[in-house]
Amino acid sequence: MFFPEIEKLSSDKIKSFQESLLADNLLYLKEYSGFYSDLFIKNKIDIKKIKTLEDLQHIPPTVKEQLQNRNQEFICVDKNKIIDYITTSGTLGDPVTFAMTEKDLERLAYNECISFVCADGKGTDIYQLMTTIDKRFMAGLAYFMGVRKLGAGIIRVGNGIPELQWDTINRISPNALIAVPSFILKIIEYAENNGIDYKNSSIKKAVCIGEPLRNPDFSLNLLGNKIKEKWDIKLYSTYASTEMGTAFTECNEGIGGHHHPELIIVEFLDENDMPVKENEVGELTITTLGVEGMPLLRFKTGDICYHHTEPCKCGRNTMRLGPIIGRKNQMIKYKGTTLYPPAIYDILDHISGIDNYIIEVYTNQIGTDELLINVSAKDTSFNFEKKIKDNFRAKLRVTPEIKFISSDEIQSLQTNNISRKPKKFIDNRKNI
Predict the structure, then answer these.
(1) Residues forming a β-bridge with 371
(2) Minimal CA–CA distance to 116: which of 204, 236, 218?
(3) How far apart are CA 71 and CA 64, in angstroms?
(4) Is the dihedral of CA 183, 96, 67, 344 positive or negative?
(5) CATH code matching the domain that covers 1-325, chosen among 3.40.50.620, 3.30.479.10, 3.10.20.30, 3.40.50.12780
(6) Is the pLDDT of residue 337 over 80?
(7) Which of 35, 166, 223, 338 has minimal Cβ neighbours within 10 Å of its Cβ?
(8) CA proximity to 311, closest of 302, 303, 320
(9) Other Cβ atoms within 10 Å of 145 Cβ, number
(10) What residue spans in the chain does CATH classification 3.40.50.12780 cover?
């Protein structure tokens, strides 16, 4: 069911298929996109000469600052064709608005449907949705529409409130969760504290969003292992973004998120915007296919990862996306070592006794990066601080500054009126 034939073809045939869609895509952008028609003129780009995926390298990539600063110029349709308005989380300041047409919403539903199928989804499943479907948020809406297209059941509980989550599980008996993995740990903790026999509940699997579950070699990371040690349910990672309206979701093999070539062209670029080899990390760069309202061409997502092209045992021959290592603009150069926040989260999440934390990076007096870990914990002794530093020294070979602050102070730093989820990382560097 909903296993697209294109995903079973050889890599050469998949490439030819995408190239057959590229010309129409470029013509559409030239005619209807104010931003891209201007880009083609300014860079003297003859789109008729862009025939292969490799030819895309002749077109300058699009970056987030352009999408933010010239937001309205990316819209390709009249206002009366826009059905839904969505915004990104605003990591660069003001959120970016995305306009979606009826066709775009259908594309979104199709994407999530085949993504759920990739994660062994069936029409007989009942999913409990533990993410918001409001606040101009794409993901919750996408999951809801994708499950409907799959023909499965869905319960819109939303995020937070562990008591309500367990009440819903006990009342309706869903067999699957759609959730941020760290929140799964919170509902496990709630169950343990309130005598709920969660190991014998109806839940058998979880589609996990927003946080990586795996290391680059596809072994479970500390967060994934913590969940599995407590609750032996099947975990599937999925990665997506508002800008691409497409998901990369794991199959049962658990070796990367599968690419849907009918929906998106994917490149992996180095710092000079050149393609990287398969065994090298690169910035995920995407060209949307089939988007009507706000299509994007060579859009640099800011996410750094590996990619893999060998065929998968599940029968799909599509490229697979490795776990996101970090955000390009969040890369930290600390005492000669390159770090990304997820590696720091992984250590802190594994240290028993840390209740909450937030990372700060700033520029010191000599112009290099400094790292401060704000920690909320009952034990604020020298020995506990040493334990935290020893973990960093052993795993990342650096020792950041540790500062103990109250839980209320951390919560005030983590939340604001716009953000949909608590911040774990604050970047106060200059000229980054």
Answers:
(1) 361
(2) 236
(3) 10
(4) negative
(5) 3.40.50.12780
(6) no
(7) 338
(8) 320
(9) 19
(10) 1-325
Give the pair of three-digit tokens for residue 101: 């047409």
CA distances from 154 to 143, 163, 312 (A): 9, 18, 29
Angle between helices 102-118 and 138-150 (to 10 degrees): 70
Instruction: Output Rg (C-alpha) for the chain, integer angstroms.
Output: 22
Considering only the C-alpha atoms of the chain, give the largest distance between any 2 of them, rounded to a whole number of Å. 68
Rounded distance between C-alpha atoms, residue 140 and residue 135, angstroms: 10
Q: Is the dihedral of CA 139, 140, 145, 150 positive or negative?
A: positive
Q: Name the segment(s) of the chain with CATH classification 3.30.300.30.
A: 331-428
Say whether pLDDT at 93 is over 60: no
Cα–Cα dist 77/98, whole Å: 12
Can you read off the two tokens belonging to residue 210?
């927003």
* Predicted local confidence at residue 313, as pLDDT: 95
- Residue 77 main-chain phi, psi, to 5 deg: -130, 160
Lowest mean pLDDT among 7-16, 17-26, 103-112, 391-400: 391-400
DSSP string, 335-397: TTEEE-HHHHHHHHHHSTTEEEEEEEEEE-TTS-EEEEEEEEES--SHHHHHHHHHHHHHHHS
What distances in angstroms separate CA 180 from CA 196, 282, 357, one per listed residue? 21, 25, 17
Do residues 337 and 400 lie in contact, with contact meaning Cβ atoms separated by under 8 Å? no
Residue 308: beta bridge partners?
320
Q: Which candidate, 286, 282, 246, places its Cα nearest to that of 265?
A: 286
Q: Which residue has the tokens 């009249």?
A: 78
d(CA 353, CA 347): 12
What does the alpha-carbon distance between residue 137 and residue 133 come to, in Å, rounded to a whole number? 6
- Please choose, from the candidates 111, 105, 342, the residue with its C-alpha nearest in 3D space to the C-alpha of residue 249: 111
Of 207, 186, 80, which is closest to residue 142 (Cα–Cα)? 207
Collapsing DSSP states into helix, strand and coil, what is residue 326?
strand
One DSSP character per residue, 64-88 reads HHHHHHTGGGG--S-GGGEEEEEE-
Say which range, 131-135, 213-217, 301-305, 358-362, has the weakest mean pLDDT.
131-135
331-428: CATH class: alpha beta
Contact by Cβ (8 Å): 418, 352:
no
| 171: phi then psi, degrees, rounded to nearest 5 | -80, -40
